[in-house]
Amino acid sequence: MSRVDDRLAELGLALPEVSAPVAAYVPAVTSGSLVWTSGQLPFVDGALPATGKVGAAVDPETAKDLARRCALNAIAALRAEIGDLDRVRRVVKVVGFVASDPAFTGQPGVVNGASELLGEVFGEAGRHARSAVGVAVLPLDAPVEVEVVVEVA
Questions:
Q1: What is the pLDDT of residues 40-94, one digit of tens each?
Q2: CA gap 11, 53 in Å, rounded
Q3: 129 CB contacts (<8 Å, ≥6 apart)?
Q4: Number of neighbours of residue 52 by Cβ within 10 angstroms
Q5: What percent of the chain lies above the pLDDT cut of 70?
Q6: Which of 48, 108, 117, 110 is nearest to 78 (CA)?
Q7: What is the average per-residue pLDDT within 23-43?
Q8: Of 23, 46, 115, 120, which residue is the least packed, with the fewest Cβ within 10 Å?
């Protein structure tokens, strides 16, 4: 088992199967030493556990948990792309999209779900630059979507 696999096990996390793309793209792409994941929705066993706008149909704490799930799905896409997660040198950038009620302004707190998980899994290498963006709607009416860029050895 790798160091990252050990850490996932310590956290009680199992990587899911990589979700099939919902359009014409691939889950992750490598270029040079960087790997980009496509935007990951919070699928659990092929279904979205919640839909709707954060601040209306979805409360911020639930959305934060969903962002955490998006990050777990991104890690699964990374593993499928690079094989050994110990190759991750650094999480470079995270972009989180939050389908938001017009009055909701807590996008950074929601995307913390993803950022915190990446820190728990990759340690210091999980610290990253980030954007948290409020949007009107996301694919399949998902409340959150997260994409990740990592540097690999």
A1: 999 999 999 999 999 999 999 999 999 999 999 999 999 999 999 999 999 999 9
A2: 29
A3: 92, 93, 94
A4: 16
A5: 99
A6: 117
A7: 97
A8: 23
> CA quadruple 84, 146, 35, 116: dihedral positive or negative?
negative
* Residue 6, pLDDT above cutoff 70: yes
Amino acid letter, residue 102 = P
The structure tokens 């998006």 sit at 70
Residue 73 near residue 43, CB atoms below 8 Å: yes
Q: Whole-angstrom Cα distance, residue 3 to residue 121?
A: 10
Helices 60-82/107-122 angle, 10° precision:
40
Residue 34: count of CB within 10 angstroms of its CB = 14
Query: What pLDDT does 1 receive?
Result: 67
